[in-house]
């Protein structure tokens, strides 16, 4: 197994919750060939770091391109592709489940492992002093993969990979200026400007999907947690969990418990910045009439969800004990 495959394997083990019993194996992971960017200008834009132009005079530095903008486009395309892929693969997954799974698939660590496998860091043009540091950076190597996707996308837009593109034209329709678009529309030509650009972009995205599909389908299958569906069912069952627990405790004259709540990071979350991606965890502890303690915790997107789940789980414990002590009564 290659070094990058081993790295992907370690990432998948980390991204999977430690409580999950599913054993992930992708030893036979198949890497699709990386489509090349054969357009010289686009390839240069996709592999050149801004440090390569540190020696360029300030007055002309703006004329030189670097891969930041290409990576910006590639990042957006990757998010769009994975969002659509997950919808096709797991249509029953709700918004939160799909968002969590997408976050596991689209992040700098996965991007970096992919980038290293395809030797993209070795191709990047940098300034002399920063090259080794950039190639060792997870953030930068991940961005190099996004930059390649952005460059590949516009390569598909510009070249004859697109059906209907006339390679005899010096400037593809999707790259024409707004003045040219307006003139074409006035003269009644076939090129209607923005509409044509969007069609070309759609065809280019289809070409990109042919590469991304085999790559991310396997990763999605490895990271998908079917027990998450059970969590969604639990969420539905526990909508009134806290209210029902309080009602039962009041009837039994048992003190209403306090709900301890804290905001935590999911186990699989690697990129922890600010509060984005954090979840809520609540813990409910009930001391029953005979001194028996019932304690559970719940996790949710907000305090209400987490508190209801924890209360519902405690309520089920109490009902199970009550059924045992009085089997004739329906609880």
From TrEMBL:
Statement: the UniProt record of this protein carries the keyword Lyase: no
InterPro entries linked: dsRBD_dom, RNase_III_dom, RNase_III_sf
Coiled coil: none
Upper classification of the organism: Eukaryota, Fungi, Dikarya, Basidiomycota, Agaricomycotina
Domain RNase III: 37-153
Protein name (record): RNase III domain-containing protein
Gene3D superfamilies: 3.30.160.20, Ribonuclease III domain
GO molecular-function terms, A-Z: ribonuclease III activity; RNA binding
Gene Ontology process terms (BP): RNA processing
CDD domains: DSRM_SF, RIBOc
Pfam families noted in UniProt: dsrm (PF00035)
């Amino acid at each position: 197994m290659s070094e990058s495959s081993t790295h992907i394997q370690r990432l998948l083990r980390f991204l999977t919750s430690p409580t999950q019993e599913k054993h992930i194996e992708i030893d036979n992971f198949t890497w699709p060939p990386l489509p090349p960017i054969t357009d010289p200008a686009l390839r240069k834009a996709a592999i050149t770091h801004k440090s390569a132009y540190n020696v360029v005079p300030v007055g002309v530095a703006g004329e030189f391109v670097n891969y930041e903008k290409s990576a910006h486009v590639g990042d957006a395309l990757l998010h769009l592709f994975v969002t659509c892929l997950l919808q096709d693969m797991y249509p029953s997954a709700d918004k939160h489940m799909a968002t969590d799974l997408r976050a596991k698939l689209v992040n700098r660590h996965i991007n970096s492992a992919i980038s290293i496998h395809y030797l993209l860091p070795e191709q990047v043009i940098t300034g002399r002093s920063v090259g080794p540091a950039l190639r060792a950076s997870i953030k930068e190597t991940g961005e190099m993969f996004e930059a390649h996707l952005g460059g590949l996308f516009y390569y598909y837009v510009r070249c004859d990979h697109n059906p209907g593109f006339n390679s005899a034209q010096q400037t593809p329709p999707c790259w024409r200026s707004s003045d040219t678009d307006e003139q074409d529309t006035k003269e009644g030509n076939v090129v209607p400007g923005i509409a044509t650009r969007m069609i070309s972009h759609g065809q280019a995205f289809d070409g990109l999907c042919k590469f991304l599909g085999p790559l991310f389908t396997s990763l999605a299958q490895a990271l998908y947690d079917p027990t998450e569906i059970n969590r969604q069912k639990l969420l539905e069952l526990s909508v009134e969990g806290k209210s029902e627990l309080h009602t039962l405790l009041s009837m039994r004259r048992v003190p209403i418990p306090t709900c301890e709540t804290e905001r935590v990071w999911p186990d699989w979350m690697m990129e922890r910045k600010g509060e984005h991606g954090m979840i809520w965890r609540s813990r409910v502890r009930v001391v029953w009439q005979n001194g028996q303690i019932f304690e559970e915790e719940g996790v949710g997107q907000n305090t209400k969800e987490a508190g209801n789940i924890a209360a519902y789980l405690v309520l089920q414990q109490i009902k199970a004990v009550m059924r045992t002590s009085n089997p004739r009564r329906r609880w």
